[in-house]
Specification:
Number of domains: 1
Number of strands: 5
Distance between the termini: 40 Å
Strand content: 5-15%
Largest sheet: 5 strands, mixed
Radius of gyration: 18 Å
Order of helices and strands: HHEEEHHEEHH
Shape: globular
Length: about 230
């Protein structure tokens, strides 16, 4: 099993899970969001999901006190994910403990640096969609939670939330297939094998989506099953 996971994580992950900067591939992603949600120039939706783990032992070299204890009161890895309108994962980062805020993970992301660099080089028509937990950037659009009803800001927020909801659906579809990622199926693996398992899940899910082997109808109950969405998660 270990050998298979290593092949999946080290050799297939870079092939099946990648955030493209090629214009033709980004245009295809933009077309998907435009056709489904009438939201132009979107190259992905971003969010985090918590995957439960047992409390790391004191002698674990990756143990940093209560760093893995999240704000919901259980130990977890806070996994940062980007997906397209077809629920294909474009990027995943499972390196950070549960207490790390979504925006902090994003600030250290190589994809964030890539988006900033592309903007500085003149690409002003490509952006990601995030909730209000992220800082608004010229390459990352977020909702306006206090927009007045009927205002342009409210209409924009409604459209953004509908388009960004693909990431919630992605989490539901992913956890429907891989129950090892559910909150009540707490991961007992240590850091190294856990990372291999997570990366293999992303690869297999993209392969299934590419072959239309996904049951979307039954995934709703799994959508961010650990998450009571708060107001700043609009």
């Amino acid at each position: 099993m270990k050998e298979v996971l290593q092949i999946m994580a080290h050799h297939l992950f870079p092939v099946y899970v990648k955030f493209t900067t090629r214009v033709n591939e980004q245009n295809e992603i933009k077309r998907g969001f435009l056709q489904q949600f009438q939201f132009p120039n979107v190259v992905g939706a971003i969010d985090c999901t918590h995957i439960a783990i047992v409390a790391p032992p004191e002698n674990d070299p990756h143990h940093l006190g209560d760093a893995y204890l999240n704000r919901k009161g259980f130990y977890s890895i806070n996994v940062h994910v980007i997906c397209d309108s077809d629920l294909k994962i474009l990027g995943a980062n499972a390196r950070y403990p549960g207490s790390t805020h979504d925006s902090a993970i994003w600030s250290m992301s190589s994809i964030n640096r890539c988006m900033r660099r592309n903007f500085e080089r003149g690409d002003h028509t490509s952006w990601l969609l995030g909730d209000s937990g992220y800082a608004l950037k010229l390459w990352l659009l977020t909702a306006i939670p206090d927009a007045l009803d009927g205002s342009p800001g409210a209409r924009y927020t409604l459209m953004l939330c509908r388009a960004r909801n693909v990431i919630e659906r992605y989490f539901g579809v992913l956890k429907q297939r891989f129950h090892c990622l559910l909150k009540h199926r707490v991961s007992h693996y240590n850091h190294a094998p856990r990372a291999l398992i997570f990366n293999s899940c992303w690869v297999l899910q993209n392969i299934c989506i590419g072959r239309n082997l996904v049951n979307y109808e039954d995934a709703e109950e799994f959508e961010n099953e650990e998450d009571d969405q708060e107001m700043n998660d609009i």
